[in-house]
Amino acid sequence: MKITLIAERIFDGEYFHQDVPVTVEDGHILAFDTVVGAKEIRQAGTLVPGFIDVQVNGGGGALFNADPSVNCIETIGRAHARFGTTGFLPTLITDDVSVMANAADAVAEALVKGSAGVLGVHFEGPHLSVPKKGVHPQGFIREITDAELAVFCRQDLGIKVVTLAPENVSPEVIRTLVAAGVKVCLGHSNADYDTVVAALAAGATGFTHLYNAMSPLGSREPGMVGAAIESETAWCGLIVDGHHVHPAAAKVALRAKSRGKMMLVTDAMPPVGMEDETSFELFGTRVLRVGDRLNAVTGELAGCVLDMATAVNNTVNLLGLPLAEALRMAALYPAQFLGIDHKAGRLALGYRADFVLLDAQNKVQANYIAGQAVYTHP
């Protein structure tokens, strides 16, 4: 069945256009025109590429670590679909290897099932730095062994991202991971600049939540932050919630970093999409929600109550970026990092019909994954 959506304007990933029809067939964009026999649907607002989130711990009351199952993944996906996410990586933070294996099984099953939006998996840990662990449980932080490598190197997990601390994982192991199709991100690390540069040379291509839980930039010790901003090729995830990174620090990084290498992430936790949820448990520690901020009772920031649509708006309102660039940071740049920009991150002929309808305030009115409406604002 062919469907033609006619919005007031579209953003194709580079430019805005007025009154351009988008015709979809078999889950892909068939034409930027009306097509004979297609059902026409007129919509107020702006049609934009679907948002891609590479770091999603939870949503809809569900936490992947607490329930590494297909049902949990789908609950998280539904919660984030309300906010424009059309592709995401369920993210497992530091945990026992048995939980990692269960999470991998769940992701593999979700991919076979075709669970909406699931692109693969992100293992954030467990090979991190204790001084920069944040809320990751210290008891599970450990050296990498064959057991973890066996999970990371599975070939049925879609896109695989692993966050590690390079002072605790050698360049040789990083090369092994990259050879197995893993996208290695650096984070939760106290590494010095030279150690970070060596990890990049070994094949690491990303940094997990820039500034947060990493050695800072200093005048004589550039640290991980300095190496991340300096790199012309590596991508950085950025949490724009007004709490994790001061707007001034984010602006400095954006001005210094190569254009196209900064992407929005949510680091989302269970309360996303659950307005009444004020707390949840994480490894036996209570995490409290106050407004749009999450803190463990021990004081640390504990992920976010952030969604991608809010991240886009915050990027415009707090950081002063044009809407077009904020939208690219939410869709095109993550797609490029994940290596799927040949089929996602833009509105282009032959691309998957993953797009979001925004109103004049950039609030999500509808979300389409492979041409199917997965969310419509009531």
TrEMBL record:
SUPFAM superfamilies noted in UniProt: Composite domain of metallo-dependent hydrolases, Metallo-dependent hydrolases
What UniProt keywords apply to this chain's record, in alphabetical order? Answer: Carbohydrate metabolism, Hydrolase, Metal-binding
Catalytic reaction(s) noted: N-acetyl-D-glucosamine 6-phosphate + H2O = D-glucosamine 6-phosphate + acetate
Per UniProt, what is one GO molecular function of this protein? N-acetylglucosamine-6-phosphate deacetylase activity
- Its EC number is 3.5.1.25
Q: Where is the Amidohydrolase-related domain?
A: 46-366
User: Per the record's keyword annotation, is Hydrolase included, yes or no?
Assistant: yes
Task: Report the InterPro entries cross-referenced here.
Answer: Amidohydro-rel, GlcNAc_6-P_deAcase, Metal-dep_hydrolase_composite, Metal_Hydrolase
The top EC class, named as a word, is hydrolase
What protein family is recorded?
A: Belongs to the metallo-dependent hydrolases superfamily. NagA family.
Protein's name in the database: N-acetylgalactosamine-6-phosphate deacetylase
Q: Which organism encodes this protein? A: Shewanella vaxholmensis
